[in-house]
Specification:
Elements: E1 4-11, H1 17-26, E2 32-36, H2 44-56, E3 60-64, H3 82-103, E4 107-110, H4 114-120, H5 124-137, E5 140-143, H6 148-155, E6 160-165, H7 189-201, E7 205-206, E8 212-213, E9 219-223, H8 229-242, E10 246-247
Parallel strand pairs: 1-2, 1-9, 1-10, 2-3, 3-4, 4-5, 5-6, 6-9
Antiparallel strand pairs: 7-8
Helix pairs in contact: 2-3, 3-5, 5-6, 7-8
């Protein structure tokens, strides 16, 4: 069993009053956050709001860039030239970096969002692009363990943190079940808590075919837009701490 683990959430994606209120409450529970910076969601105003909240709550703040596709919330694979994607990702990361600098908040990491996250795990071109971006900004890269992204990051001397998901079902190969599949998002809170605890303890979890698989995790993610996410996050932290596991960001 690990003595500590990071608990993270993707925030700044919903600028409704309800979404902002939820994210600010989530900030009091998690140890790190990934802030949308314009590709799939987010605005300069909300980035500033989230960064200030992260600073106040001592939460490690990261950039959460995406395919430039607000229409589909960045959750659809996109046919885009690498140069065009690189330009967009640089613009997104520079936006949050500038706002962080203005607010006196240090960015610690970079985690791609949605379809870009999934596509990059086993794609050398996308992994190289994200690794270069993380290296340029001096950020730790967050992704799946045993992935092309992890391999390239380590070869490039880029700090890498392996992530697993509390609220997502996995395939037998250790990748996420596509959201188009029934049950891809775990709706039951107890099932989320069981999976989160197993991941934190290094135990096997059950994949979409009810088989046991192992998924490495230095940080656990809960999507803030999942139904009941705030309650699950709070319960997850209480459960982990009851088992003697400290909630702590891994970023230096």
């Amino acid at each position: 069993m690990k003595s500590s683990i990071d608990l993270n959430a993707d925030l700044g994606e919903d600028e409704t009053q309800k979404g902002i209120a939820r994210d600010l409450k989530m900030m009091r529970i998690v140890s790190s956050c990934n802030i949308a910076c314009g590709g799939h969601a987010g605005s300069a105003e909300n980035i500033s709001r989230m960064l200030k909240a992260a600073k106040n709550e001592s939460v490690a703040a990261g950039a959460h860039p995406s395919y430039p596709d607000r229409k589909n919330f960045g959750r659809v694979s996109m046919e885009i030239e690498p140069a065009a994607l690189q330009k967009s990702l640089e613009q997104q990361t520079q936006l949050i970096a500038d706002i962080a600098s203005d607010s006196g908040t240090r960015l610690t990491h970079l985690k791609p969002h949605g379809a870009l996250y999934n596509d990059a795990q086993d794609d050398e071109i996308l992994s190289n692009l994200l690794c270069r971006l993380a290296k340029y900004y001096g950020l730790t890269l967050v992704g799946m363990g045993s992935s092309t992204m992890e391999s390239i990051a380590k070869k490039s001397s880029i700090d890498f943190i392996s992530e697993a998901f509390i609220d997502r079902r996995y395939l037998s190969n250790g990748r996420l079940t596509p959201r188009s599949f029934d049950g891809a998002v775990i709706a039951d809170e107890q099932a989320r808590l069981d999976q989160g605890l197993a991941l934190a303890c290094g135990d096997n979890i059950t994949d979409n075919l009810d088989q046991q698989i192992s998924v490495s995790a230095q940080t656990l993610c809960l999507h803030s837009d999942s139904e009941g996410a705030l309650k699950t996050a709070d319960s997850m932290r209480v459960l982990l701490e009851s088992k003697g596991i400290t909630i702590k960001a891994p970023f230096q």
